[in-house]
């Protein structure tokens, strides 16, 4: 059997398509490894420099903006990549229309953020931080360049852009720490980050010498995109709220220091989330193309991807659980020691985050945008309810429990409410079957 596995592995490695996707994924993975290293070195240095209270305020401002960022994104990511793959001759029309939709969506988001701050207990300084960070979202309209490179399996260029942005960002943060700068300057770096990535993406696209899409806008296509993406817009907002509502609720119920402690644990937990995102986005074109060949190939690739995602997450969760207190003490210092137990609970939500990244590709390929939205909304509601119950009783540990449990409910409980999710549920549980795992390795 070992000989057969080696034979299949050699065949896969020799396949031209595999080498192409592997190279694409390697660039993305390398960039994110640098980002993770920067987060562990520069990011944690900044957290130690600011202290739990100031770091908590900074994390709150970032979380508050993140909740509304889905409005500016308009859920266009997977849709535009798919449409460029299916209609390559209309590339500039799709990119140009998406660019302007995202541009004006950002200004609409700023208006929503302004209204939302009226219902918080924020002081003027906190609101200033929120608006500085939110203003950077305008530059995210240049993300459409990333969509093009994804469709062509050319993430090398995007990775170079992000590495450049990371270098600028890290250099500024180090300078501000060494010069004893106020929190305001670290907030400004968040705005500079968005501007830098936009500029580098623009340069990368011009380098391709394939014309310009910025002057293209099709009203009918814009309407079609908005109608198609509306469930994904709402889903994106639900995900953003889902991922950050715990920090907002901790701020309102417990205070800035507790947000800082919770955010420290959350960053060590979520530092791994780039892995499924890279793998899923890099393999998305392969999954779309497999469906054109046969359903057998299509679902075979999905099952292998599910197995890989889930067991990788379990391995990470086990290691992080045992090392949680040690990592927090060594990286953040004794002032953040309360974050260790939070990390040991929060990390187990990664299993469903990893699976969800692969699952969402399948759902998009099948046109289940509404199902994505409904599942996200149900999970969001469960998270808010659990936070209301657990935070007053158990503090930030309660928020971690609420997050981990609500992450799991979407694919293990709520999915049973939708007929089109039957196959997804079966494939999820098959990922724990030794028989299925061995079969996928053989094939």
What does this structure look like?
With 443 residues, this protein is mainly α. It has one domain (2-442). The protein has helices at 2-14, 16-73, 77-86, 91-117, 124-135, 143-151, 155-178, 183-207, 219-253, 256-270, 274-293, 295-332, 339-346, 350-365, 369-394, 396-412, 422-430, 434-442. Residues 4-16 have low confidence and may be disordered.
Tags for this entry?
single chain, 443 residues, mainly alpha
Quick structural gist:
This protein has 18 helices and no strands. It is an all-alpha fold and 443 residues long.
Write the layout of secondary structure elements.
Blueprint: H1 2-14, H2 16-73, H3 77-86, H4 91-117, H5 124-135, H6 143-151, H7 155-178, H8 183-207, H9 219-253, H10 256-270, H11 274-293, H12 295-332, H13 339-346, H14 350-365, H15 369-394, H16 396-412, H17 422-430, H18 434-442
Helix pairs in contact: 2-4, 2-5, 2-7, 2-9, 2-10, 2-11, 3-6, 4-5, 4-6, 4-9, 5-8, 6-7, 7-8, 9-10, 9-15, 9-16, 10-13, 11-12, 11-14, 12-13, 12-14, 13-16, 14-16, 15-16
Which quaternary structure do these chains form? single chain
Look at the helices and sheets and give the structural class.
Answer: mainly alpha
- The N- to C-terminal Cα distance equals 12 Å
Helix content: over 70%
Q: Care to count the β-strands?
A: 0
User: Averaged pLDDT, please?
Assistant: 80
Using the CA coordinates, give the radius of gyration. 22 Å
Tell me the fraction of residues in β-strands, as a range: under 5%
Low-confidence stretches: 4-16
How many structural domains does the protein architecture include? Answer: 1
Q: How many helical elements?
A: 18
User: What gross morphology would you assign?
Assistant: globular
Write the H/E string, N to C: HHHHHHHHHHHHHHHHHH
Largest sheet, in brief, is: none
């Amino acid at each position: 059997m070992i000989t057969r596995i080696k034979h299949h592995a050699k065949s896969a490695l020799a396949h031209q398509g595999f080498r192409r996707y592997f190279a694409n994924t390697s660039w993305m993975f390398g960039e994110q490894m640098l980002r993770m290293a920067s987060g562990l070195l520069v990011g944690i240095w900044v957290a130690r420099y600011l202290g739990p209270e100031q770091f908590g305020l900074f994390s709150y401002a970032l979380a508050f903006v993140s909740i509304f960022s889905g409005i500016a994104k308009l859920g266009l990511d997977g849709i535009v990549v798919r449409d460029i793959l299916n209609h390559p001759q209309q590339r500039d029309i799709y990119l140009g229309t998406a660019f302007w939709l995202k541009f004006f969506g950002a200004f609409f988001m700023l208006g929503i953020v302004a209204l939302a701050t009226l219902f918080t207990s924020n002081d003027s300084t906190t609101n200033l931080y929120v608006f500085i960070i939110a203003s950077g979202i305008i530059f995210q309209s240049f993300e459409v360049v990333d969509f093009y490179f994804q469709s062509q399996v050319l993430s090398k260029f995007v990775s170079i852009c992000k590495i450049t942005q990371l270098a600028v960002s890290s250099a500024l943060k180090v300078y501000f720490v060494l010069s004893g700068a106020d929190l305001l300057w670290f907030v400004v770096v968040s705005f500079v980050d968005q501007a830098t990535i936009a500029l580098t993406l623009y340069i990368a696209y011009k380098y391709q010498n394939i014309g310009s899409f910025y002057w293209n806008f099709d009203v009918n296509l814009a309407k079609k995109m908005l109608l198609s993406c509306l469930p994904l817009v709402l889903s994106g907002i639900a995900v953003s709220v889902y991922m950050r509502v715990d920090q907002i609720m901790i701020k309102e119920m417990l205070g800035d220091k507790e947000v800082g402690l919770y955010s420290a644990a959350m960053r060590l937990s979520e530092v791994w989330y780039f892995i499924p995102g890279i793998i899923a986005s890099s393999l998305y074109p392969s999954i779309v193309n497999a469906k054109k060949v046969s359903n057998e190939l299509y679902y075979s690739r999905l099952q292998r991807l599910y197995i890989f995602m889930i067991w990788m997450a379990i391995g990470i969760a086990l290691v992080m659980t045992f090392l949680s207190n040690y990592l927090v003490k060594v990286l953040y210092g004794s002032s953040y020691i309360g974050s260790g137990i939070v990390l040991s609970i929060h990390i187990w939500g990664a299993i469903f985050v990893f699976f969800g990244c692969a699952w969402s590709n399948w759902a998009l390929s099948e046109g289940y945008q509404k199902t994505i939205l409904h599942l996200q909304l149900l999970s969001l509601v469960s998270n808010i309810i659990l936070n209301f119950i657990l935070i007053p009783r158990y503090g930030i540990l309660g928020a971690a429990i609420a997050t981990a449990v609500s992450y799991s409910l979407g694919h293990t409980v709520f999915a049973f409410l939708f007929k089109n999710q039957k196959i997804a549920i079966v494939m999820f549980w098959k990922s724990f079957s030794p028989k299925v795992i061995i079969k996928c390795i053989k094939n």
